[in-house]
Design goal:
globular; four-stranded antiparallel sheet; binds ligand FM0; single chain; 324 residues; alpha+beta; eight-stranded mixed sheet
Length: 324
């Protein structure tokens, strides 16, 4: 009972930042992302009576410890769903350079959920596959779809209405993303730890929540109308608000590095010169720059000259989960 699936990572334009239920991963706000073609994971899951325990290899290296436990825990959900108790061999290959500052958990859990559920004989509609994927890593539930996807937070306690839905396919709009990779590394507060601390201690957290519904409406309008300025402005403002919550947390923290701020400033300067570009930043120091195809050269060349920038990785809108 074997299946292989490929899933791409995504970049949130309206961020998921906070959980109302940590065990089945239910968010405190809806989020919206663009799936990217440049970064993906391909995963094969093989359920068999021959296996006495789950095995997991990542880029052909056997994985033990916490990473294996997270995979096994997720396979348990699939087994429960299917009413079967078979163990599995899982082989994943990541085309998500960790250095690019993209969490591989989004493409990783989307590929694992798709391959695992197919291998065990479940034929899940996309929403159910998304809700299953969500329980591996929240942001991964959006990677089921290509292009723009919204994770509707839902209100039910069992999470059955918390899944992603497609907003517009990759072909709708060739919106591009440059991942600006910084050369210096900072001590990392994981997104899981960071969002938990913020929810529990930051007095700015309520302000974050209050601002989401209007931003969500605006960005969806912008996507529909192909209005780059509208989408960029909302995405940038949403990112700044998310990062502002971390400064109010106890203990306070920030994901920004000095070069992070230089890149943000450079993006603003490009805009002043008439080159449309906007930034967004996840739970790390690297910056993602949104731009349109006609400005690719100038964007790449400008970002490349910033001291402290190690690499620029360009991406187009990507496809949803596919089976190989
Ligand atoms: O992607 O604890 O999915 O919406 O990347 O595994 O559910 O790794 F900027 C932060 C991603 C959070 C925003 O969190 O957390 C976004 C973030 P998990 P994730």
């Amino acid at each position: 009972m074997k299946a292989t699936a490929k899933a791409h990572t995504n970049i949130a334009l309206i961020k998921y930042w906070g959980k109302r239920n940590e065990s089945i991963i239910l968010p405190t706000n809806s989020s919206l992302s663009l799936t990217l073609d440049g970064f993906y994971t391909t995963t094969t899951v093989d359920f068999s009576e021959e296996y006495t325990k789950d095995q997991f290899t990542l880029n052909e290296r056997p994985i033990e410890g916490e990473q294996l436990r997270r995979v096994t825990g997720f396979l348990d959900l699939i087994r429960q769903h299917a009413g079967k108790s078979l163990h599995a061999a899982v082989h994943s290959v990541n085309e998500v350079p960790t250095a690019a500052g993209f969490a591989s958990s989004a493409s990783g859990f989307a590929a694992l959920a798709a391959a695992g559920s197919k291998a065990i004989g479940l034929d899940l509609p996309e929403r159910e596959l998304s809700a299953l994927t969500r329980q591996g890593s929240g942001s991964a539930c959006r990677s089921i779809y290509g292009g723009f996807a919204e994770w509707e937070m839902g209100t039910k306690e069992d999470g059955s209405d918390s899944y992603a839905v497609p907003i517009a396919p990759a072909e709708h709009w060739d919106l591009r993303v440059a991942a600006v990779v910084l050369s210096s590394k900072m001590k990392k507060v994981s997104s899981r730890t960071g969002m938990k601390r913020t929810v529990e201690t930051s007095p700015f957290y309520q302000g974050w929540l209050d601002s989401i519904p209007a931003e969500m409406n605006q960005i969806k309008e912008g996507i529909k109308e192909l209005d780059f300025e509208k989408v960029g402005e909302v995405a940038e403002a949403n990112c700044l608000k998310m990062h502002a919550t971390t400064l109010g947390a106890n203990p306070p923290f920030t994901y920004w590095h000095d070069t992070t701020m230089t890149v943000m400033e450079t993006v603003r300067e490009m805009r002043e010169k008439g080159i449309p570009a906007y930034f967004t930043i996840d739970a790390g120091p690297n910056v993602k720059v949104l731009y349109l195809p006609e400005n690719e050269e100038v964007i790449k060349n400008t970002l490349r000259t910033i001291p402290g920038v190690a690499d620029i990785r360009l991406s187009r809108p990507g496809q949803g989960v596919t089976y190989l």
